[in-house]
Amino acid sequence: MHSESQEELRAHWDGRYRGGQTPWDTGIAPPEVQAFWKEQPKPARGSFALDIGCGTGLNTLFLARQGLYAIGFDLSGQALQLALQRREAIGRDEQLVTEGKAIFVQGDVSRLPLDSLGAVYALDIGCLHSLPDELRPAYAEGVHKSLKEGGHFHLYVFDRSSSDGPGARGMRDGEVAELFYNRLEILTEEIGVSSTLASRPSRWFLLRKTSQFP
Ligand SMILES: C[S@@+](CC[C@H](N)C(=O)[O-])C[C@H]1O[C@@H](n2cnc3c(N)ncnc32)[C@H](O)[C@@H]1O
């Protein structure tokens, strides 16, 4: 059973950002996310989206560019400072404030304070798979509560490997289905498609909250 405190986890992630050990920070929104939004109708004005474990905010800003009010959450203050710098640099050129908007909140994603937010979309690239096992059910409940009916959840995870240490634990086979059972339905599961993000086995999931799971 894991025993890291929230402070230890935060220190771990702050250290990664401080030391520039962030291979996931590719500078481009993943093709899977871009393709999803290319196919979607323009979101209704004032629609919310969440970027869960947003890191330096690249994808939060991508979502704001789609016309969404995008909320990026992260435990790491170091990451969020970089996100704010990124927003400022981009905001000067692209008036993100005119249609969408990106805001950043420091918080623990296993305690998402967003009941009934009614988000149309939530994104997690590489956060859930790093959470200690015992925090994952609360995380899943938080995602479920923050989405509106019909809202999508886009999730990128590593498969679990026996050598995983803190910060990269991966997901057991079938774990996503278990965690979201009676919460969200899995629409698609694609294996190892995003080789730009990791050289290890990984998956993209697209899930949706239906009226079956209010
Ligand atoms: C692999 S990074 C991915 C960052 C971002 N999604 C991206 O694609 O650039 C995982 C992120 O999850 C954050 N994180 C890990 N555990 C967290 C928690 N319990 N609450 C909030 N954020 C967390 C880390 O600080 C880190 O920024």
Features:
Rossmann fold; 7-stranded mixed β-sheet; 7 strands; 29% helix; 23% strand; binds S-adenosylmethionine
What does this structure look like?
With 214 residues, the protein is an alpha/beta fold. The protein has a single domain, classed as Rossmann fold (3-Layer(aba) Sandwich), CATH 3.40.50. A 7-stranded mixed sheet has the order 3-2-1-4-5-7-6. Helix 4 links the parallel strand 2 and strand 3. The longest helix has 17 residues. It is globular, with a radius of gyration of 16 Å.
CATH 4th-level superfamily? Vaccinia Virus protein VP39
Number of strands: 7
Helix content: 25-40%
Report the sheet-strand fraction: 15-25%
Shape: globular
Mean pLDDT figure: 88
Task: Write the SSE topology.
Layout: H1 6-18, H2 31-39, E1 48-52, H3 58-65, E2 69-74, H4 77-93, E3 101-106, E4 119-125, H5 136-146, E5 147-158, H6 175-179, E6 185-191, E7 202-208
Parallel strand pairs: 1-2, 1-4, 2-3, 4-5
Antiparallel strand pairs: 5-7, 6-7
Bound molecules: S-adenosylmethionine.
S-adenosylmethionine is lined by residues 9, 13, 24-25, 53-55, 58-59, 73-76, 79, 108-110, 125-127, 130-131.
What's this, in brief?
The chain has helices spanning about 5-20, 30-40, 60-65, 75-95, 135-145, 175-180; strands at about 50, 70-75, 100-105, 120-125, 145-160, 185-190, 200-210. It has about 210 residues and is of the alpha/beta class. It is globular and about 45 Å long.
